[in-house]
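Subject: design request, 453 residues
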């Protein structure tokens, strides 16, 4: 960039907006990356953003609109005429990005915008993509790719590649198809360039191609691309015809969105929300788990009520309730977090379920032993009550083992029943372990104090 995007630069840009100085605004916008422009748009009001947006070159405007956050993007699109959206945005975008943009608008307006697109083939591609679930491979894919027939010579294929590649930003692979558009394999650009021009594509392409069908979940697509280190993956229909490709930038978005969703679920937030959402929406997303936590708290108080006489008689037991509850909760969250991460990455499946449970049991056994020995020595030194020392140590040992196994078991079961296992981490595990941990502690206390004292 010619200019440094410092405070003075943005002050000049704001002044150009205030003075409606289009010439200055255009010169400053040319110095900015589309991502920086999108970030700036999120800091100004919609009228100022619209003023700058209309000044952008169509190709830059298309890149900017993709980078803007969802809420701001929706506002900007609502403020723009259909003709502007069609001619300066949609026609300059890859089909997958164009479909994403139209997905933010209602059906009636989307149809009107599609009617303004001059390239009927592009409009048809976008309509096709809108028919797929947005979280599936079909919804993620773009129609733009280079496909060459297996019966062509290298010379013919090079000409075909030049014709098809005109509107494609990046060419990762050339896809080889037969006369029925069935995907047969791929060919590296280097192999194509260094092969004899008279050779048939049939004799030089690689038939070992990894592909996904249109109905495959986007998260699974991301796992496949990560596993095989792919920068692009072809998408086929039910009978193997090549219908599109998914590139690494689309997969990065999927991974980020899934991570955000899992993080919110792990925190006890049931809807996809962000800081800009209304107070009501944010409250609605949080209150279910708060209510569940309250129910857990009531259950815990009922258990304490069952042992009220023991606690009154041996009040010293209450001192270590927070220790038992907190340690058990932490152990459960740790094990569930590891399992959720493994399930998300595909490292854990149903076949390894019992193996994972057994391994986590051994981890809980070791951690419980270490923690119980430490608390045993602590109480042995600072407490003269041997019954209490033994009770706390044995309870901590049992609670850590239980919490570790329980924290492993729950997300595996949820995943088995097609429920997002991330929901098991955080409030659910913590609340469950609190209740059961209190029960284990007081049962052991009643037994030991009854024997020793």
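Subject: RE: design request

Done. Sequence follows.
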């Amino acid at each position: 960039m010619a200019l440094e995007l410092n405070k003075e630069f943005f002050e000049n840009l704001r002044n150009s907006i205030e003075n409606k100085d289009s010439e200055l605004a255009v010169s400053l916008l040319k110095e900015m990356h589309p991502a920086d422009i999108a970030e700036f748009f999120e800091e100004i009001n919609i009228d100022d953003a619209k003023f700058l947006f209309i000044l952008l070159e169509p190709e830059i405007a298309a890149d900017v609109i993709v980078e803007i956050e969802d809420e701001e993007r929706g506002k900007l699109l609502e403020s723009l005429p259909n003709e502007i959206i069609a001619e300066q945005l949609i026609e300059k975008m890859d089909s997958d990005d164009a479909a994403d943009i139209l997905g933010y608008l209602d059906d009636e307006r989307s149809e009107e915008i599609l009617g303004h697109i001059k390239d009927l083939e592009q409009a048809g591609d976008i309509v096709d993509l809108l028919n797929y679930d947005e979280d599936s491979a079909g919804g993620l894919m773009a129609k733009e790719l280079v496909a060459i027939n297996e019966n062509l010579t290298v010379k013919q294929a090079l000409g075909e590649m030049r014709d098809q590649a005109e509107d494609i930003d990046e060419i990762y692979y050339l896809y080889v198809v037969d006369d029925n558009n069935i995907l047969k394999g791929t060919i590296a650009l280097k192999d194509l360039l260094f092969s004899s021009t008279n050779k048939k594509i049939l004799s030089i392409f690689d038939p070992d191609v990894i592909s996904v069908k249109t109905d495959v979940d986007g998260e699974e697509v991301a796992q496949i691309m990560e596993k095989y280190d792919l920068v692009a993956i072809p998408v086929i229909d039910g009978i193997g015809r090549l219908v599109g490709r998914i590139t690494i930038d689309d997969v990065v978005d999927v991974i980020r969105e899934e991570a955000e969703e899992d993080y919110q679920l792990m925190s006890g937030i049931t809807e996809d929300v962000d800081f800009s959402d209304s107070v009501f929406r944010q409250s609605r997303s949080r209150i279910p788990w708060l209510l569940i936590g309250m129910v857990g708290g009531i259950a815990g108080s009922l258990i304490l009520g069952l042992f009220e006489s023991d606690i009154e008689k041996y009040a010293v037991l209450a001192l270590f309730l927070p220790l038992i509850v907190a340690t058990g909760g932490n152990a459960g969250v740790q094990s569930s977090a590891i399992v959720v991460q493994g399930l998300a990455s595909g490292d854990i499946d149903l076949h390894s379920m019992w193996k994972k449970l057994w391994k986590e049991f051994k981890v809980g056994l070791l951690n419980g032993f270490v923690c119980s020995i430490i608390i045993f020595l602590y109480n042995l030194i600072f407490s003269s009550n041997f019954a209490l020392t033994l009770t706390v140590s044995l309870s901590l040992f049992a609670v850590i083992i239980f919490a570790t196994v329980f924290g492993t078991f729950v997300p595996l079961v949820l995943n088995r029943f097609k429920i997002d296992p991330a929901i098991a981490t955080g409030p659910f595990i913590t609340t469950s372990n609190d209740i059961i941990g209190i029960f284990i502690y007081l049962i052991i206390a009643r037994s030991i104090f009854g024997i020793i004292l």
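The longest strand covers residues 242-247.
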